[in-house]
Amino acid sequence: MHLSTRRKFLGQLSLISAAIALPKFASSSVLAEDDFVIAEVSEGKLRGIRKDGVCLFKGVPYAGTLSGDRRFKRPAPLEPWTGVRDALQLGAPAIQSQFQSRAVNEPKPAEDCLFLNVWTPANDNKKRPVMFYNHGGGFSNGSGGALDQDGSNLARFFDVVVVETNHRLGLMAFLYLEHIAGPEYAGSGNNGLLDIVDGLKWVKKNIAAFGGDPGNVMIWGESGGGAKTSCLYAMPAAAPYFNKASIESGPGLRMLPKEAAIEMTKLVFKELNIDIKDWKKILDIPIGDLVDVQNKVPPLMAESDYIRKHGVVGFVPNNFAPVVDGVALPNDPFDPFAPKISKDKPLMTGWNEDEWAFFAMASHDTGALKNDFTFEALQTKFEPEFGADTQKIIATYRETRPNASASDIWMAVKSINMMGLGTIAIAERKTEQHGAPVYLYNFGYKSEAKVPGTDYPFGTPHAMDITFKFNNEVPGAPAGFLSGNKPERFIASHHMAELWTTFARTGKPAAKDVPEWPAYNLTDRPTMRIDSTCEVINDRYKEELAMWRSIGRVGYHSLNSR
Fold first, then answer.
1. Neighbours of 468 (CB within 10 A)
2. Is the pLDDT of residue 417 over 60?
3. Can you give the pTM of this predicted structure?
4. In CATH, what number is assigned to the domain containing residue 546?
5. What is the pLDDT of residues 103-150, one digit of tens each?
6. Which domain, by its residues, includes 304?
7. Which one of 14, 223, 249, 532 is the catalytic residue?
8. Which terminus, N or C, of the chain has the lesser number of Cβ atoms within 10 Å?
């Protein structure tokens, strides 16, 4: 993938807040007394609301404080409460530098951010599958309260329980300190992931009170949430608490090497003018100053001797991210193998056909989508990224897509190179284990909405799948900024939501009016293309993938690559 462009985009990721329409059904309203519902968890009683056939509990604490002397440590134990605690408002999201809420009445970001939200059809002791969602936003922003990922329709129409957490992000989540601060800070380079594990532990203890089955938990997530899910799939601490997973438009093959994390820590203390031996001073630094330093580190890291020697590192290039510390995250999640610890856990993984349309918009790089963009201009645009391979790439795509414009080929190449190649590598490596099945998909519903400033349609851009798989593209909801206004989107959304919820229930994705979805294998290489009409395509992109393999693109390798 084009790492420099991706880095620019991730610095502007809050644009997604404006890019996704807020679902109409999620608007707030005044509640009558009989709308309240009570659930009892291990720390006390919670009062949520029941509306339109769904019980919703917001801002539920799942671990204790992170502030004060707990900064950069594991959280304090959650204290029980007396009486009934309201769970009617969202909890604070994590500290983040470019926060723009996609939620209603969400508090400002705060250090104490370990809250979750639960959507359930009923608190009735029925054992429903639990869908534990990890929000996107790279590793630096987002929250579990965003409206595009509202779980109401999944709970209402598919009889599942949906859980979403807030957890530490950025420097607050992934600053590696244990090499200088000792055992109290063990795991500090993965605090954001270990927070999610605490959320999973809470589910194990308490979800039965919400009509969920603690023995049938699916973890899933999109973009940065897909990368978080990739990590959780490889973490011993998470292993006892989930049964299956879905990695969506966020193939987390590799995370930050420990040596790179140590280099980033040095840069942080240098920018704060703190000697490493006086590291405790960071505990008193105002949050705003830490956020400022967080924003300064990636460009400094990019110019460091470490990067000059080793090359760009991390899922989000040269940025704060989970650390392969040998303990909390023992190895890179899917490199060179799929994690043995999850060999017997079914997996879904896939990407959107036109991922780059969103990134082009967010990074203001839309010149290649203009009507006058030529193949000569395409070669010029690709050469800084692909070098001597540029002509081979363009020639292959012109042969396999003879009617495609230069803009179309730019979109196809950028989309598969960013998300597709790593996703296929995950599917291959999981298949090579000969354990539980893996199911590969492409989301392909085409939006007619135009990329701003162009006449080029979004197609199937990054993040558009969120409202579809949550079944939030429904009649009565306003047309989405990304998803457009065609009524066929309702069918595609229902297909996607049914496939995901059936996988959560049984470990095998299936839906009415959708062909049987075979597990991925290294002979037929089947891919489910999800649209208003779904189809299974064998060995999709065969010639194009052979070309990518032949030039050895980073992140695309398999023991049995053909």
1. 26
2. yes
3. 0.93
4. 3.40.50.1820
5. 888 999 999 999 999 999 999 989 999 999 999 999 999 999 999 999
6. 256-323
7. 223
8. C
